[in-house]
């Protein structure tokens, strides 16, 4: 008899333990072992959380090259059937060869589950000895488990699921994540409910009352926001380094519907708009996607959502200062252009309306659509079209972690009929879907690739733009890593073109994510290794780095409500000289709307205890030495970048931490 040394690793995660019997069969090119019960002197503890247990599987003859293991779990007489989360199986053959079988999924029943040896195989490669367990069989099952659904016409498609528990077990929250998520959601609301505010449908009477709620949960940055939210320099700073650095662009020609004059913005005659535009010192934010959007009704009161235009001037001391604001798209006598020289509350109210419009632009376009919904499309297409053995699956699967359940909960708790944003934001309800549809039609491939986006918006040389600095460095680091991995597996362009699984993946993304809009520039097929590298870099960047940039600071910048109002309940001033502090307080959202928004931003900004930083791969999907070394190099580069960002932040009045790879 020949002995195969089998080592079974149970994942070190909550409730991964099984007390059931575990059986294994080894399948090779030369035959199969018997279906063997794995018995250990350790007894039931062989398959507890984090356990590593070794066994011997005999065979009368050599099995040849191992290609597959079969695992099944059978309940004991005295123990009910439970769930088990094996991480991997390693087998040492009598000839001394080591075979690794990545698993990383829940086994919840007593059926036989088959797992292929971990060496990556592209879509035109296969091991024909697998016979009954072909790639086609795996993908056929996956396409039953992961079905497309249409949540609302005109926005990216999503996973079909009746509830979190109907999602396949391997993509659901861990026990720790689920527990913390439920606790955090209830704790945030409970904290505010205790103050008797969550049901108070009245105006704020003074700023001090807002401060008392705000003070219960502060960060160093949110405290800075409260102190400086009225300052023009900080207003401009947020369009570069706040939670929405994606709208501002260099102005090369003043929009025809924004009739700003030299006398308005440079009354001392020191310079002219034409001169400053030519020098590259004028910048623009245009919220035209909000134009004509039907605003919500909250607490039986009509709300207001503007579509402003904002002009900025880069001053000689490198500050980005707002110099003109028009709150509606169409110039008119009752749509004045507000200026820093106006009265305190005229100018402050104009900035508040801009910040409120930015809340909706950020939440729906920049955050929800361009990170969450697109990341879900990338993940569902991967799970439907690419088998576990494929190098693309191994590379991308860690970056899909929790995406499907998070998005299911976002649809249910944030944008459904009873969702927080639907009920309490100015853009909730009908307006929300209008904005999402418009936003999708404006998404381009170039805008998702940060080097091209920065160049296209004319922001390559803007000073003090830390989002750009960090995003470009992380993009380049990811790109080098992706190039190394994919170039190892794809030696020629022809190999990319011949990979049917890869081509189905990209086509599904084009059809279900971008609704077959050719104007998006999203490829329908991949023809070169370079095209593949760029697209995969974008996928990883979108779901990790870009999401961190537009999500992690939400409570920092939004918890002081006047800085980012979720809604406004008076129309904008139509004449100058009328606004007062009382006007401002009546315009700001009601007390209950404020605290619901604060609690939601707090929840969205929380990090779970099982957070995994970029570049860390707890699951061991790659078995070959070369890609494993590339992962180590990637981690070292990210660590060096993290150290550089931390050092830079020591010198900043407001540190920019959101793209630190370690955070």
UniProtKB/TrEMBL annotation:
GO cellular component term, pick one: cytoplasm
Coiled-coil ranges from the UniProt annotation: none
Residues reported in the UniProt entry to bind Ca(2+): 82
Record-level GO BP terms: lipid oxidation
Main localization (coarse): cytoplasm
Domain of life of the native organism: Eukaryota
Known cofactor(s): Fe cation
UniProt keyword list: Calcium, Cytoplasm, Dioxygenase, Iron, Lipid metabolism, Metal-binding, Oxidoreductase
Pathway named in the protein's UniProt entry: Lipid metabolism
Residue intervals of the Lipoxygenase domain: 120-663
Family annotation (InterPro entries): LipOase, LipOase_C, LipOase_C_sf, LipOase_CS, LipOase_Fe_BS, LipOase_mml, PLAT/LH2_dom, PLAT/LH2_dom_sf
Domain PLAT: 2-121
Site note Essential for stabilizing binding to COTL1, residues: 106
Cofactor note: Binds 1 Fe cation per subunit.
One Pfam family of this chain: Lipoxygenase
A GO term, aspect molecular function: oxidoreductase activity, acting on single donors with incorporation of molecular oxygen, incorporation of two atoms of oxygen
SUPFAM superfamilies: Lipase/lipooxygenase domain (PLAT/LH2 domain), Lipoxigenase
Residue sites binding Fe cation per the record: 367, 372, 547
Localization annotation: Cytoplasm
Family to which the UniProt record says this protein belongs: Belongs to the lipoxygenase family.
Name of this chain's protein: Lipoxygenase domain-containing protein
Source organism of this protein record: Gambusia affinis
């Amino acid at each position: 008899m020949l002995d195969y040394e089998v080592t079974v690793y149970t994942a070190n995660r909550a409730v991964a333990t099984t007390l059931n019997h575990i059986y294994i069969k080894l399948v090779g090119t030369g035959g199969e072992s018997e279906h063997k019960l794995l018995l250990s002197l350790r007894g039931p503890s062989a398959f507890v959380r984090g356990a590593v247990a070794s066994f011997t599987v005999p065979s009368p003859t050599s099995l040849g090259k191992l290609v597959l293991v079969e695992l099944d779990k059978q309940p004991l007489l005295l123990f009910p059937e439970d769930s088990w989360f094996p991480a991997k199986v390693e087998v040492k053959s009598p000839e001394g060869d080591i075979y690794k079988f990545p698993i990383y999924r829940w086994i919840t029943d007593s059926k036989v589950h088959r797992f292929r040896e971990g060496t990556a195989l592209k879509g035109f490669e296969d091991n024909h000895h697998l016979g009954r367990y072909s790639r086609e069989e795996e993908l056929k099952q996956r396409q039953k488990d992961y079905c497309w659904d249409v949540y609302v016409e005109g926005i990216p498609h999503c996973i079909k699921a009746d509830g979190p528990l109907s999602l396949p077990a391997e993509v659901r929250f861990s026990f720790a994540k689920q527990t913390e998520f439920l606790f955090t959601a209830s704790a945030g609301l409970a904290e505010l409910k205790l103050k008797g505010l969550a049901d108070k449908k009245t105006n704020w009477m003074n700023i001090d009352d807002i401060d008392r709620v705000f003070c219960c949960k502060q960060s160093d940055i949110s405290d800075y926001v409260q102190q400086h939210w009225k300052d023009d320099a900080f207003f401009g700073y947020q369009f570069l380094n706040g939670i929405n650095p994606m709208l501002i662009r260099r102005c090369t020609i003043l929009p025809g519907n924004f009739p700003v004059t030299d006398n308005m913005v440079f009354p001392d005659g020191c310079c002219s708009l034409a001169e400053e535009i030519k020098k590259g010192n004028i910048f623009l934010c245009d919220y035209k996607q909000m134009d004509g959007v039907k605003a919500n009704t909250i607490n039986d009161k009509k709300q207001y959502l503007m579509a402003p235009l904002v002009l900025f001037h880069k001053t000689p001391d490198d500050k980005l200062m707002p110099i003109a604001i028009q709150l509606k798209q169409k110039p008119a006598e009752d749509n004045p252009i507000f200026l820093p020289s106006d009265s305190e509350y005229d100018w402050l109210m104009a900035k508040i309306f801009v910040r409120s419009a930015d809340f909706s632009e950020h939440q729906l376009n920049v955050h929800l659509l361009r990170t969450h919904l697109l990341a879900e499309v990338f993940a569902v297409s991967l799970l439907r079209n690419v088998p576990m053995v494929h190098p693309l699956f191994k590379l991308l699967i860690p970056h899909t972690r929790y995406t499907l359940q998070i998005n299911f909960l976002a649809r249910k708790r944030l944008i459904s009929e009873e969702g927080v944003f639907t009920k309490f934001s100015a853009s909730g309800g009908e307006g929300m879907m209008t904005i999402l549809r418009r936003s999708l039609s404006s998404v381009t491939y170039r805008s998702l690739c940060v080097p091209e986006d920065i160049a296209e918006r004319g922001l390559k040389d803007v000073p003090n733009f830390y989002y750009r600095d960090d995003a470009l460095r992380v993009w380049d680091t990811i790109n080098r890593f992706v190039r190394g991995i994919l170039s190892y597996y794809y030696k020629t362009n022809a190999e990319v073109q011949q990979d049917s699984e890869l081509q189905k993946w990209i086509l599904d993304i084009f059809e279900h994510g971008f609704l077959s809009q050719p104007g998006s520039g999203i490829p329908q097929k991949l023809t070169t290794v370079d095209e593949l590298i760029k697209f995969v870099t974008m996928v990883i960047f979108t779901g990790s780095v870009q999401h961190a940039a537009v999500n992690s600071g939400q409570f920092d910048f939004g918890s002081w409500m006047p800085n980012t109002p979720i809604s406004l309940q008076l129309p904008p001033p139509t004449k100058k000289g009328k606004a007062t502090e009382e006007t401002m307080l009546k315009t700001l959202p009601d007390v209950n709307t404020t605290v619901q928004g604060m609690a939601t931003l707090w929840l969205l900004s929380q990090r779970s205890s099982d957070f995994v930083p970029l570049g860390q791969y707890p699951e061991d999907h790659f078995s070959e030495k070369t890609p494993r070394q590339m992962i180590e190099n990637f981690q070292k580069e990210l660590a060096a970048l993290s150290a550089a960002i931390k050092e830079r932040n020591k010198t900043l009045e407001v540190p920019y931490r959101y793209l630190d790879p370690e955070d």
